[in-house]
Each structure stands twice: as structure tokens, then as C-alpha cells.
Specification:
By secondary structure, the protein is α/β, with parallel strands linked by helices. The chain is built from twelve helices and 15 strands. The strands form three sheets. An eight-stranded mixed beta sheet has the order 5-4-6-1-7-9-2-10, with helices on both faces. The protein has a four-stranded antiparallel beta sheet with strand order 12-13-14-15, with helices on one face.
């Protein structure tokens, strides 16, 4: 199967970020609806002044945040019925950014502002190539709150000694976690006065309020990078773990300003990929999704990896765009397949062959099958790829 998959070629963006630092953030409950120019100006700026992915999707998988992390960090589809990230803790994972950059001499750290054992991250994240700290094993926060503060996590971790090149730091945030109310969410309550003028429901305002904590955390991050002279030398990558499914559908519609189509549009989101030395925004129209982040970063950082062994693709390659959803629906540049109705709908003006929809579905089904087998059989170890020894444990 893997030997017959097409490999992606190097392209004009190969090595663009080679040698730079990388800060990679997977943000709890973050989506495009979290951003407004007034309430989250830092996120808004980064989203519109770096690479701008106009058709980025972030599907929801079975184990919510943990599966969201798994797809983003490994470029594999989670196996149904298990905690795939936890199950991978004893597997060899040579293509994660933590392991790849660590082998090149980067100091690779990961932080999470919640219980460090949650979803067994104390086992899985060192295996991804990181020195991992969360609440309870070294990450010190100065307030007792639920959800915890992303700002406090940044303040605790962005010390001068941790901002010395070359470094790669991964953050999993929690401030954007449901429930979205001013009574149940400490981050919403913290910023309630800042969204009091918004003419919207309490749930919508509470969601925007807790996402303001993420915005201010990223603002602090940029300030520290500038203070230490690392801003021009650091890439920021940020996306959500999943869409905010804790919101009522009518609240999502309210934030979007229209009735959101739930099979595909619901998962349309924002992927921030930003570097201060990009002279102008680069717009990308190809459909892409969370599994494409790892191979795209690998290409941009000039890393040597076997693209056939990942389920996502480098967005800048000549591979056609493909977005795969948990129920085996898919979306391409030519149309979309709704698995629940078993119907393929071509895009207006698209010319497709008689077998296109069925052949693409076969490819999608294979991606699920072989992703599960990679996890079950520790396939990268079987291939003998142990050129990146991991001592992060």
C-alpha cells in the first residue's frame, strides 16, 4: 500500500523556514468564529498576515481533543474505539516535529495548562519527542481556576533560557474549553467586561471571552519573542483541536452570521501559519485539513521525511487537495461526498470522470484502514526507521 502511494516533490517553499524556531499551538475549541478584529486582534492579525488558508477544515474525531492532537501531530487518522494518542505511546514515531527537530539539535518542549496525566499525555508526549510539563509535574500556574489560564502558561514558560535558538515548543491550551457561560468558565468570567458591549447571546459572548485569553497569551508570546530578539527567527503555527461543539447550534449560527451547514461547513476553520519575515500574505485556496499540517511544516523546515507514510500532504505540493471526515465523507477541489447520504455532489463547472467519486472513496477508506494498521503494528518501527533516537522520556 505505502510503496504504491505517490510521494510529494519538493517545491518553491521547501526549506523556507529551515533553521528557524517553531512554536506550535493546538488551541482548545478555537475556530474562525473565535476571531474578531476587536476582541482578538492578535489572532486576527496573524491569521491575515501570514499564510492564509482559505479552505482549511478541522474535522471532529471520536476522542475530541486527544484525537485532534493525534491527527495534527502525526498526520494519521485515529483508530476508532481507542485513545490513539495514548495507544501510540510505545510506538516509534519518527515523523513528528518533536522527534525530527530534536534530532537536529533543537531543544523540544511541550506544555499543557491542565493535569499532565490527562489522556495519558505524560506517556504519549515524551514519545512525540518533547520534554513534557503540565499541571502537576512542573508547570506552575499562580491561580486555581477552571479552565486554567493560557496567559499564565505563557508567563511561566517563556523564560529567557527557553528562548535560545534553536528551539521548538508545543503548547496545548485549555482556556477555550466548554462550558461557555460566565458562571461555569473562569476564563469567560475573567473577560466578561470586555465583551459586555457585544450584541449577542450570553453563550456567544462567553465563548468570545474565553478565546480572548488565548489571544492575550499569543500577544504575550510575541512580546517575549521580540524582547529576546527571536521574533524574526520564529514561526508560529496555531490551529484548533476541534470546532467548539460545546456551543448550541444556534449559537454557532449566531457567531457565523448565518445558518451553518453541519456536514461540511461546520468544520471549516482557521490555520495560522505566520513568520515575521514574510513580506506579504500568501493566499492558499487548495482544500486542506488538520492532517496536512505536519507534512507542510516538514517541507517548510526542509526536513527529510517519506511523504508516502503520512496520510496528509504538503499543501504546497502538486498533490490535489483532499479533506477527510470521521464518517468517511470527503471534500476535494472537484466536489464533496456525503457518506451519510452516499451522494457525491460535483462543484459547479467541475468535470469529473465516471469513476472519480468511487475511486476517491476507496482511497479514503484505505486511509482509515492503514492508519489503524500503522498504530496497531508499530509500523514505522517495523520499517526500521530508528534514525531519530528519542531520549525525551
Amino acid at each position: 500500500y505505502f510503496s504504491q502511494r505517490p510521494a510529494t516533490e519538493k517545491n518553491e517553499y521547501t526549506g523556507l523556514f529551515q533553521g528557524k524556531n517553531l512554536i506550535w499551538i493546538v488551541a482548545e475549541g478555537f475556530t474562525t468564529y473565535a476571531m474578531t478584529e476587536e476582541t482578538t486582534p492578535t489572532l486576527w492579525k496573524l491569521a491575515h498576515s501570514g499564510f492564509v488558508f482559505e479552505n482549511y477544515y478541522n474535522p471532529l474525531w471520536g476522542v475530541s481533543t486527544s484525537d485532534g492532537e493525534y491527527t495534527i501531530l502525526t498526520s494519521l487518522i485515529p483508530k476508532s474505539g481507542v485513545w490513539s494518542m495514548s495507544e501510540s505511546a510505545q510506538n516509534y514515531l519518527p515523523f513528528t516535529m518533536g522527534n525530527q527537530l530534536r534530532s537536529l539539535g533543537y531543544v523540544t518542549r511541550a506544555f499543557h495548562d491542565h493535569d499532565y496525566t490527562y489522556y495519558n499525555r505524560d506517556q504519549s508526549h515524551p514519545n512525540l519527542g518533547y520534554y513534557f510539563k503540565g499541571v502537576g509535574n512542573g508547570l506552575e500556574l499562580y491561580s486555581d481556576a477552571w479552565p486554567e489560564s493560557d496567559v499564565e502558561m505563557m508567563e511561566s514558560t517563556l523564560t529567557d533560557d527557553r528562548l535560545q535558538s534553536p528551539f521548538h515548543t508545543y503548547y496545548l491550551t485549555v482556556s477555550g474549553h466548554m462550558n461557555y457561560s460566565f458562571q461555569e468558565n473562569s476564563m469567560s468570567a475573567k473577560h466578561e467586561h470586555e465583551v459586555g458591549h457585544e450584541d449577542m447571546s450570553e453563550e456567544a459572548r462567553a465563548y468570545l471571552a474565553c478565546q480572548m485569553e488565548l489571544d492575550q497569551a499569543v500577544e504575550y508570546l510575541l512580546e517575549r519573542l521580540e524582547e529576546t530578539g527571536q521574533l524574526e527567527n520564529t514561526v508560529i503555527c496555531l490551529s484548533g483541536d476541534h470546532y467548539p461543539y460545546g456551543l448550541a447550534q444556534e449559537t454557532i449560527d449566531e457567531l457565523a452570521g448565518h445558518e451553518v451547514e453541519q456536514d461540511f461547513e461546520q468544520y471549516r476553520s482557521t490555520w495560522i501559519l505566520w513568520s515575521a519575515d514574510l513580506e506579504e500574505p500568501v493566499t492558499v485556496t487548495k482544500p486542506c485539513y488538520s492532517l496536512d499540517i505536519l507534512p507542510t511544516l516538514s517541507n517548510l523546515f526542509g526536513l527529510e521525511y517519506d511523504s508516502r507514510l503520512l496520510m496528509g500532504h504538503d499543501v504546497f505540493s502538486d498533490q490535489p487537495g483532499l479533506v477527510v471526515f470521521a464518517n468517511h465523507s470527503y471534500l476535494t477541489e472537484l466536489g464533496r461526498y456525503d457518506a451519510s447520504a452516499d451522494v457525491f455532489t460535483p462543484n459547479e463547472g467541475a468535470e469529473i470522470g465516471d469513476d472519480y467519486a468511487a475511486d476517491t472513496l476507496t482511497m479514503v477508506n484505505d486511509m482509515f484502514t492503514y492508519s489503524a494498521l500503522v498504530l496497531e503494528q508499530d509500523y514505522y518501527h517495523t520499517l526500521g526507521l530508528e534514525k531519530y533516537p528519542n531520549d525525551a522520556k
